Amino acid sequence: MSGSPSTRKARIANAANVMYTNAVYWPNHRFYNGDTPGSLNYGCINRVYYAFANVMADGGVFLSDEWADATAPCDGVQGALGSLMHLKQRYPHLQVVLSIGGGNSAETFPIVASNTLLRDNFARSARGLVEASGLDGIDTPVVWEYPCSPQQGADFLALLAAIRLHLHEDHYLLTAALPAAKQVLQNIDLRRASEYIDAINLMAYDFFGSWTHRSGHHAQLYAMNKDEPSGSSGVQHIMAAGVPAKKILLGIPLFGRSFLHVSGPGHKFRGAGGEEGSFEYSNLPRRGTKEQVDKRAVAAQCVGGDGGFVTYDNPDTVKIKAAFCKQKGLGGLCYWSAPSDAKDTKRSLITAGFRALHSS
Fold first, then answer.
1. pLDDT exceeds cutoff 90 at 243
2. How many Cβ atoms from other residues are within 10 Å of residue 209's Cβ?
3. Which residue of 154, 172, 270, 332 shows the fewest CB atoms closer than 10 Å?
4. Nearest CA-CA partner of 51 in 334, 315, 314
5. What is the spatial distance between Cα 280 and Cα 255, in angstroms, rounded to a whole number?
6. Residue 194: what are its φ and ψ, rounded to 5°?
7. Residues 94, 249: Cα–Cα separation, whole Å
């Protein structure tokens, strides 16, 4: 399953020749819904983040579901990760990166990151897993609920440094998923972090949801009020901190957030529809509703039916976000998560993003 470092180096160089990155997350639990990596369109995807591997209290990294990842019949081979390794041989431009951060990682990551020995164990263990599987690198940490103090920010930096010691940049990718929220980003020395990592996957969504006081566009590119978070302000903050624009991937949600008993953003709502307040993009707009686009915020919405006010991205908003990426010189787009995309090419956000990034 493994590829030699020289071929991996060629693959990374090969991918760098693609003008923009169009990356997707593929969560392993989706295997149980009948989704497989083989059903994706790799004409529009050049990187897959396989989520999640778990981290143990001693810093060890391990596959979170051996059956789904490496054993179960999937696309004619063994395991969903096995399928992606197989797909890499068919598509020379494809990179497969392991996302670490499932299970109890939110509690475990800060402890591991704060200890020299555990950081080293984490880095060695991650490298072992990457080499054994033939992966192109790792993405970390996704479900550590982010460094929430300057000390944790420093620990996060130390963890990146430890990983880089074992996963050299000429052979392996190292990326980090971070929220587009200033209160988190301000705890990290982003310029120094960018010296270790190849990309920041900026989660420019979940700005509003069942946990906020008011309804709002959950993935708005531009805020209507200056105290609201937005994709553009997140990008601006990271670039102002000294991160090269080409190292930023703008995150696109393949799900919508629901607010009941309101007809738009900025209102007090009562409850949320869907599963834990969200609907998969492939199930939007909701039945009996009409899709509209808020061009100022750059957000799609539908109102009525079982979702109340549902805010999400559609092909039109993704095209505008892709144009924003090009204008700012960003590295591209990333999507959470691929199995929720529309099967119809005309509605597919992954396809819309890829085409808009690579059109003149």
1. yes
2. 18
3. 270
4. 334
5. 4
6. -70, -15
7. 17
Active site residues: 145
Residue percentage of the chain with pLDDT more than 70: 93
Determine whether 337 is exposed, middle or buried from the number of CB atoms within 10 Å of its CB (0-12, 13-18, 19+): buried
Q: Taking each helix axis as running N to C, give the angle between helix 105-113 and helix 150-166, from 0 to 180 degrees, rounded to the nearest 10.
A: 80
| Number of neighbours of residue 198 by Cβ within 10 angstroms | 22
DSSP, residue by residue, 106-137:
HHHHHHHHT-HHHHHHHHHHHHHHHHHHT--E
pLDDT above 70 for 8? no
Write the single-letter amino acid at 9: K
Q: How far is CA 59 from CA 17, 64, 122, in A?
A: 35, 14, 4
Rounded distance between C-alpha atoms, residue 43 and residue 35, angstroms? 18
Cβ-based neighbour number of residue 44 at 10 Å: 18
Residue 226's pLDDT is what? 87
What pTM does this model have? 0.95
Judge contact between 97 and 173, C-beta under 8 A.
Answer: yes
Contact indicator for 152, 110 with CB cutoff of 8 Å:
yes
**What number does CATH give the domain 5-254+313-357?**
3.20.20.80
* Cβ atoms within 10 Å of 128's Cβ, excluding its own: 13
What is residue 286's predicted lDDT score, i.e. its pLDDT? 98
For β-strands 248-253 and 332-336, DSSP reports them as: parallel
Predicted pLDDT of residue 104: 85
Helix (H, G, I), strand (E, B) or coil at 327: helix
SS3 label, residue 94: coil
Mean pLDDT of the chain: 94
Q: What is the mean pLDDT of residues 150-172?
A: 95
DSSP E strands: which ranges in the chain?
21-27, 47-55, 61-63, 73-74, 77-78, 95-100, 137-139, 173-179, 199-203, 248-253, 255-259, 278-280, 292-294, 299-304, 308-312, 332-336
Q: Which residues are 344's β-sheet partners?
A: none
Query: Any idea where the domains of the chain sit in the sequence?
Result: 5-254+313-357
